[in-house]
Design brief:
2 copies of one chain form a homodimer. Chain A is of the alpha+beta class. The first copy, chain A, folds into 3 domains: 4-78, Orthogonal Bundle (Arc Repressor Mutant, subunit A), CATH 1.10.10; 86-128 and 229-342, Beta-Lactamase; 130-222, Enolase-like, domain 1 (2-Layer Sandwich), CATH 3.30.390.60. Chain A has 12 helices and 10 strands. Chain A has a 5-stranded antiparallel beta sheet with strand order 7-3-10-9-8, sandwiched between helices. In chain A, helix 1 (4-20) packs across helix 4 (68-78), helix 6 runs antiparallel to helix 12 (320-338) and helix 8 (190-208) packs antiparallel against helix 9 (212-222). The two termini of chain A are 48 Å apart. The A-B interface holds A 101-103, 135-136, 138, 140, 142-143, 145-146, 148, 150, 152, 154-156, 158, 160-163, 221, 238-239, 242-243, 247-248, 250-251, 253-254, 257-258, 261, 340-341, 343 and B 101-103, 135-136, 138, 140, 142-143, 145-146, 148, 150, 152, 154-156, 158, 160-163, 221, 238-239, 242-243, 247-248, 250-251, 253-254, 257-258, 261, 340-341, 343. Chain A binds a DNA duplex through residues 23, 25-27, 37-41, 43-44, 46-47, 57-63.
Chain lengths: 343, 343
DNA sequence: GATTAGCACTCGACGACAATGAGTGCTAAC
DNA sequence: GTTAGCACTCATTGTCGTCGAGTGCTAATC
């Protein structure tokens, strides 16, 4: 569809624009050492590329800027990944080297590192709890009326909630209840725990425990609600958005930052069935607030099972090559670190 | 020090400026129904107030703006609190009505509500763990090599970390260890848990458990590090900063938002020994980044014991009366909600 | 036929300049 | 002590001309 020369010129324009954030003129392309054509020739080609929809002109007497379609072509056909640079790699690995004891820490750390190294905003989606199963249940009474209910999943995820103890239930009854739950529910997927509670545990409880209705309702409150799209969301470098010249307008940046605070929206936006690295450019994003941003996401997986997503949000004029290379490395390293939890 | 008329005029200027964000001229003050003087008289008084340091002039032919000293005088002597309006109160209470099962939820919710109702940024510091004591310790093995260690404090706070199990330690040994820990450490302040571990638990372990050195080192990793200044920090409405006309400059707002992301700094900034409501205006704040912001904080307490702080960050031109009234109510309500955990 | 030099043209950015008007300080009258 | 009147200041706004980067087109060149 495009001639070699057109591809070369498009590539040069995108590269230039990514670096400078200024519309690219024919002269500056012509001056590049690897281009042997005069400005006039470049102009003709640029005119053609604009007609084909790969370039845009902010106004008549300005240079050209890549269009969404132009970026798309660049990402799909022209980009030279070249892998993450070794210095970057070691820098990144050293950040990641500290021993991390909590999974949340790993995700937050990954988000921070990515934001730091790219100067864009990064988003990390934690593993969804939907596939986990229950490993252990525990009640820790704090006083006569309240207790903490703790649920540990097969993946080492710990949830805790505060509950009111039903009056008149003895400590031994509570212990029995916990034992029954662990015996009956261990290994059951979190999704089905609540239904199992009523279908099977109820009968069992009624046999051994007084006031079993109240105990059952207490347990209902004690167990976490599993939402299909519930991801924990970690942000890194949200304010990096402010350093991009295209977002020097406060109102524009506000709509973006507001979007970043809506974790459910982010969660939906990033979660994807498709594995590997995915690039969404400008209006390819569904949310109007980021129609002049691009989002690059990578899923991370352990044992072939996709656990979550990390992504970078930046202007459409983002350094795709660098970000893609980095995300590739980071997602692998994250998976490696997380594999501890998912053996 | 100030005449009644000067106080009245200062009050009018501060009120006006808080509403309009524009320098206040003598004419607009004179027009107010409760002021019976001509612009010329007001001008003379304004000139005096400026000489005394309560007002400032952005440039010769502009109106006056309150200085830090002016705001300070306003807050200390002129402000009319009038309590939170009933409609606001019910609105706020209805937000807060949902049953909340996690303490983190309460703090985050409080921060969100405050930000929403004020259009400023709010910061909530969670209860410090320094005063808590250990309630319950638990090890949940996930597989042969790893386990989740869970610590519940007397206040229902749950911490969990991932640890590697030392090879060669049997399940029964782990169980014994957990039992010993609970027997010996329950009720001990979290601060002293680690030292107790070595001074007392070590001997005990060596009597009942094989490989007790490895087990001890594992426990050391399993117990959370208690930092004196460790607060959990919850932010609400960070982007509200962007709606304030004084922060339409992107660079200025970036330094503020960056500060908001440094949780340790925030924690230090807000934590205060002084109980009740505290107002820090402009340069009274130590951090240069917020030298044209004001911070209003309120501590919340249960049974006379201060648990944490909630605060509002806004421009020096903030609606002090409204914010102080609101913080007063919110801090009380939060304390009431949290009292469940601290009986 | 492809490439390029030459040139007129477009249009945003920038600085100079005047007009506007909100607000002041001072003086003299009330 | 208060106020009307007035000259003065200065940020803001709008207009205008200049500048220059960049284009599109035409004709000459390879």
């Amino acid at each position: 569809m495009l001639t070699d020369r057109q591809r070369m010129i498009l590539n040069a324009i995108v590269d230039d624009y990514i670096r400078s954030a200024e519309p690219v003129g024919s002269r500056s392309i012509s001056k590049r050492s690897d281009v042997g054509f005069s400005p006039a020739t470049i102009r003709n080609e640029m005119s053609d590329l604009e007609e084909l929809g790969f370039l845009e002109q902010p106004h008549t007497s300005a240079g050209r800027v890549p269009s969404i379609k132009g970026y798309r072509y660049y990402v799909d056909h022209l980009i030279q990944l070249g892998g993450a640079s070794p210095t970057e790699m070691t820098k990144f690995r050293s950040y990641f080297a500290e021993r991390m004891t909590e999974r949340e820490q790993i995700l937050q750390q990954a988000a921070n590192i990515l934001a730091n190294m790219t100067n864009y905003t990064s988003i990390a989606l934690g593993p969804e709890s939907i596939n986990h199963s229950l490993k252990h249940f525990q009640l820790v009474p704090l006083n006569a009326e309240t207790a903490v209910a703790i649920v540990v999943t097969s993946t080492g995820h710990v949830e805790n909630r505060m509950i009111s103890l039903p009056p008149g239930v003895s400590v031994t009854d509570l212990e029995k209840t916990v034992n029954i739950l662990n015996a009956k529910l261990a290994g059951i997927p979190m999704m089905r725990v609540t239904s199992k509670l009523y279908s099977e545990i109820g009968d069992e409880l009624s046999r051994y425990v007084d006031h079993y209705e109240q105990v059952l309702s207490m347990l209902d409150h004690a167990l976490p609600v599993v939402d299909e799209h519930e991801h924990r969301v970690f942000l890194g470098g949200a304010t990096n958005m402010l350093t991009q010249p295209e977002f020097k307008d406060v109102d524009k940046v506000k709509t973006i930052l507001d979007l970043l605070e809506e974790t459910p929206t982010l969660s939906k936006m990033l979660s994807s069935t498709q594995s590997g690295i995915q690039v969404r450019i400008g209006t390819e994003n569904k949310h109007a607030a980021i129609n002049d941003c691009s989002v690059i996401t990578a899923t991370y997986a352990v044992n072939g099972q996709s656990l979550g997503t990390i992504g970078i949000l930046g202007p459409t004029r983002m350094d795709y090559a660098k970000v893609i290379g980095l995300l590739d490395v980071v997602s692998r390293d994250m998976a490696a670190l997380l594999s501890r939890w998912y053996v």
